[in-house]
Amino acid sequence: MAVTHLAAMAASIVLSMVQNTPEPELSDPLPPPGEVRVHDFRMEIDGRTYAWSVMIPPGAEAGGPGLLFLHGRGESGDDGKRNLTVGLPPAVRRNPDRWPMVLIVPQKPVQNSEWEDHAAAVLAILDEAAEKGFYDPQRLAITGLSQGGHGTIWFAANHSDRFRAAAPVCGYVDRRFDEQNIRIAGPGATPDAPGVLDAAERLSAMPVWLFHGARDDVVPPSESRSLHTALSAVEGASVRYTEYPRANHNSWDAAYAEPDLPAWLVRHTR
Question: Computed from CA positions of residues 200, 206, 207, 208, in that sequence, does the dihedral angle turn out positive or negative?
Fold first, then answer.
């Protein structure tokens, strides 16, 4: 991929198992229309407890398509609640009929860490949810916001065999916290940055839809713009980018209200 070509385009615009709560009976009747069934679990991995939830909207099919949602920094913890308060989970509760997918929602216990530092737990949670029959592991997509947007990019790029589509919201490519949870001051993404080029090559294995707010002063929109430019230059890649001109960091409310997003995710998990 030639750097000059990218520049021109830019100018033009992670096991020790398990301590789970009792397994739910998937044969239980579905909730009334408009309600979302939520199952809460806890799992111990490498001496650390992870809370995670499975959300089943009325139209979702047990053993059908699944959607991994990764929350942002502010929803970290081990209460099993904050991870359901921002972004996709409330969007699904507001309009459950739009989301005919089973949501797997882990909670990252440490704020100042990246999702890849918890990869063993996330992958174990996905395996456990599949073993319980919640979703078909061959029909899994991934999305997330902010730190979870970065996590979406990382997991999709590094575990492309697991995911069929990725929708990062206000994400970033290179990590912002090191392995000691110390913030890294980076230069920001450009289309020809090594991390961006590497992510683009890996992400070209699946359809990607990026979202960002043009006024984002937490995660610069250049992160998504650069990844979009680099992905667009990879032959065979399928990428979309939606930028909201008036949105600051909260571009997730608009992204998860996009009329075409649920159908796009379902279509690519067939």
Answer: negative
